[in-house]
Amino acid sequence: MNKIKRLLLALALTFSVFLVELLGGFFTNSVALVSDALHMLTDVLALVLSISALVVATKKPNLKSTYGYHRIEIFVALINGISVFALAIVILYEGIRRVFMVEHVATFEMIIIALIGLGANIASARILMHSTDLNVRSVYLHVIGDALSSIAVVTGGIIMFFTGVFLIDAILSMCIAFVIMYSAGGLINDAVGILLERAPKHLNTAKIIAEMKTVKGVLDVHDVRLWSVCSNVHAMSAHIVVPDMKVSETKKVIDALNSVLERYNIFLTSFQAECMNCGKETVCEIEHCDIEDEH
Predict the structure, then answer these.
(1) Whole-angstrom Cα distance, residue 77 to residue 50?
(2) What is the pTM of this model?
(3) What is the CATH number of the domain that holds 102?
(4) Which string of DSSP letters, residue by residue, matches 5-27?
(5) pLDDT tens digit string along 85-136?
(6) Structural domain of residue 232, as residue ranges?
(7) Which of 17, 91, 153, 254 could form a disulfide with 120 if both were Cys (CB 3.0 to 4.6 A apart)?
(8) Rg of the chain, C-alpha, whole Å
(9) Are 252 and 136 in a shared domain?
(10) Nearest Cα to 47, choosing from 159, 157, 135?
(11) Which CATH number is 230's domain given?
(12) Are 155 and 148 contacting, i.e. CB atoms less than 8 angstroms apart?
């Protein structure tokens, strides 16, 4: 099943349960259940944005957008993260208000509805869990957050059913808010990191450079730039120092370097070959001497 089909299936499931939880939350007077429903609404929005981004990202590169439209994925992930974080603040506020204004909750109905939501979250998580795409991962994190909150709501509902301590409902809503903030904060950090063109956090730049230096014909590597275009498209540019050789001979060296980098999922590369001593009868002179002689 491709990414778009996975997201569409998760969207249909999530939206249906969102309606059930929202209506059920008002019916049972449970702020925790309403909070869980609103969290699920952000999942719906995230899924819609993610599907739209995947469709747009299939557009081919052109002279104006030479990398294509992969970065749309990152902007969507950032919007999702910020929207979820903002929602967590609203949930936290409502939870604090309920601490000072405790209200009765229809706990039995609340438990049943929360169990339905938990089942939907587990199903959606299984649909999305194997993707490495940051955009799909952002939705997956939404769903995981929902699953955790649903578990908390079910547990709290059971405790309230037997004890009648409805303050638990408010405490649960605040706990849900903190879980959402944590997951959203990580997503925002990842998206911002890519937009700032930081080196991918799962790649060890020093280790990659060291491995590049072991390639036959490479004397040194410097001015390395390693960044991500999107969550699964990485790029590198670097200056490589080579022995005195013809420019045509550097192709073998560059091909060997690309073979090393492909193991790290780095496919967009640009190398500038340099000789150790840029003077007479060197790579630098081979590249530029004819042009200089004409002047």
Answers:
(1) 8
(2) 0.73
(3) 1.20.1510.10
(4) HHHHHHHHHHHHHHHHHHHHHHH
(5) 888 898 888 889 888 888 888 889 999 998 988 888 888 888 887 776 666 7
(6) 205-294
(7) 17
(8) 27
(9) no
(10) 135
(11) 3.30.70.1350
(12) no
